[in-house]
């Protein structure tokens, strides 16, 4: 294990740490707009109250020491979204290839399995990095596909019930 991966921690935020969510989310949309449905401009319009509302116990943030370097969220509602969906996974470029996304995913997937026994997600066909990560965690293509807002194909993957 490298020096970098030894300093990684993953946790949820307290309500008063809402600015960390904003910082990481805006960096993600600025750096990798192709990976997300939301736009940077739309999220820049959100105010403090909006970000405070978004702090929850299903959004996890990765830190290198005290520096926030990534995030992932789980979209789940027992009535309307009974299979938890992994969304908003992102790691800052300088922190990549050090196992940060894997730690974020293990946290989100562990929660999904406790909540519902399974998880799913959508990933662009051309996102080889994310697809490799998801496959290594046991996610399998379901055969469903759709187009992103900018017209690129993306595939549906599911982590089957154990
Ligand atoms: C995809 C992403 C989250 C990976 O983050 P990361 O912290 O670098 O990933 P990890 O170091 O935990 O790597 C985990 C696995 O992912 C795969 N992977 C990660 N980066 C890769 C790359 N550049 N090329 C190929 N495979 C890659 C590998 O299977 C890797 O396992 P290994 O290190 O044992 O080979 C990061 O590149 C990112 O934020 N990309 C932009 C946003 C994005 O695509 N989000 C996903 C939307 S569905």
From TrEMBL:
N-acetyltransferase domain residues: 8-160
Compositional bias ranges of the Polar residues kind: 140-150
Basic and acidic residues: compositionally biased ranges: 151-162
PROSITE patterns from the UniProt entry: GNAT (PS51186)
GO molecular function, one term: acyltransferase activity, transferring groups other than amino-acyl groups
Highest taxon of the lineage: Bacteria
PANTHER family xref list: AMINOALKYLPHOSPHONATE N-ACETYLTRANSFERASE-RELATED, AMINOALKYLPHOSPHONATE N-ACETYLTRANSFERASE-RELATED-RELATED
CDD domains, per database record: NAT_SF
InterPro entries named among the record's database cross-references: Acyl_CoA_acyltransferase (IPR016181), Bact_Acetyltransf (IPR050832), GNAT_dom (IPR000182)
Protein name, per record: N-acetyltransferase domain-containing protein
SUPFAM superfamilies: Acyl-CoA N-acyltransferases (Nat)
Keyword annotations of the record: Acyltransferase, Transferase
Start and end residues of each stretch annotated as Disordered: 140-162
Keyword Acyltransferase: yes
